[in-house]
Amino acid sequence: MNDQTQRPSGFNCPVCAGFIPVSMQQLLVMERFICPHCTLEIRLNRADSQKAIDALQKVQEAEKAVSRASVFNG
Ligand SMILES: [Zn+2]
Which of 9, 10, 14, 57 is the most interior residue, by most CB within 10 Å? Predict the structure, then answer.
Protein backbone atom coordinates (compact mmCIF):
# COMPACT_ATOMS: atom_id res chain seq x y z
CA MET A 1 0.00 0.00 0.00
CA ASN A 2 1.21 3.47 -0.78
CA ASP A 3 -0.15 5.53 2.02
CA GLN A 4 2.45 8.23 2.20
CA THR A 5 0.41 11.30 1.49
CA GLN A 6 1.68 14.32 3.34
CA ARG A 7 -0.87 15.11 5.95
CA PRO A 8 -0.53 17.80 8.60
CA SER A 9 0.40 16.46 11.99
CA GLY A 10 -2.33 16.24 14.55
CA PHE A 11 -4.82 13.78 15.91
CA ASN A 12 -8.46 12.89 15.80
CA CYS A 13 -10.81 14.18 18.43
CA PRO A 14 -11.84 11.39 20.81
CA VAL A 15 -15.39 12.71 20.87
CA CYS A 16 -16.32 13.81 17.36
CA ALA A 17 -13.43 12.11 15.51
CA GLY A 18 -12.73 15.35 13.69
CA PHE A 19 -9.13 16.05 12.81
CA ILE A 20 -7.33 18.48 15.10
CA PRO A 21 -4.26 19.91 13.38
CA VAL A 22 -1.45 20.22 15.87
CA SER A 23 2.23 20.60 15.16
CA MET A 24 4.73 18.53 17.09
CA GLN A 25 6.06 21.72 18.62
CA GLN A 26 2.60 22.58 19.85
CA LEU A 27 2.26 19.11 21.31
CA LEU A 28 5.44 19.67 23.26
CA VAL A 29 4.69 23.10 24.64
CA MET A 30 0.93 23.36 24.89
CA GLU A 31 -1.02 21.85 27.75
CA ARG A 32 -4.39 21.71 26.07
CA PHE A 33 -6.08 21.96 22.73
CA ILE A 34 -9.56 22.85 21.64
CA CYS A 35 -11.21 20.67 19.03
CA PRO A 36 -12.20 23.01 16.19
CA HIS A 37 -15.14 20.77 15.39
CA CYS A 38 -16.90 20.24 18.72
CA THR A 39 -14.87 22.60 20.95
CA LEU A 40 -13.88 19.77 23.23
CA GLU A 41 -11.01 20.76 25.45
CA ILE A 42 -8.27 18.15 25.38
CA ARG A 43 -5.79 18.37 28.19
CA LEU A 44 -2.43 16.74 28.01
CA ASN A 45 -2.16 15.97 31.70
CA ARG A 46 -1.10 12.38 31.63
CA ALA A 47 -3.29 11.00 34.38
CA ASP A 48 -6.15 13.15 33.29
CA SER A 49 -6.74 12.26 29.73
CA GLN A 50 -5.82 8.82 28.59
CA LYS A 51 -7.63 9.37 25.32
CA ALA A 52 -5.42 12.31 24.54
CA ILE A 53 -2.37 10.23 25.37
CA ASP A 54 -3.55 7.53 23.01
CA ALA A 55 -3.95 10.14 20.34
CA LEU A 56 -0.48 11.46 21.06
CA GLN A 57 1.01 8.02 20.71
CA LYS A 58 -0.59 7.68 17.31
CA VAL A 59 0.96 11.00 16.34
CA GLN A 60 4.34 9.85 17.56
CA GLU A 61 4.05 6.65 15.56
CA ALA A 62 3.27 8.75 12.53
CA GLU A 63 6.26 10.92 13.29
CA LYS A 64 8.48 7.85 13.40
CA ALA A 65 7.25 6.88 9.99
CA VAL A 66 7.97 10.37 8.74
CA SER A 67 11.48 10.45 10.16
CA ARG A 68 12.11 7.08 8.56
CA ALA A 69 11.03 8.47 5.21
CA SER A 70 13.24 11.52 5.46
CA VAL A 71 16.49 10.92 7.24
CA PHE A 72 18.23 13.76 8.91
CA ASN A 73 21.58 13.12 10.52
CA GLY A 74 22.33 15.83 12.98
ZN1 LIG B 1 -14.23 17.17 18.52
Answer: 10
- Distance in Å, CA 15 to ligand 1 centroid: 5
At 23-74, the pLDDT tens digits run 888 877 888 889 999 999 988 765 555 677 778 788 888 888 877 776 666 5
Single out the residue of 68, 53, 32 nearest to residue 22, CA to CA.
32
Assign 4 a pLDDT band (cuts: 50, 70, 90).
low
- Alpha-carbon distance of 18 to 1, in angstroms, equals 24
What is the 21 CA–ligand 1 centroid distance (Å)? 12
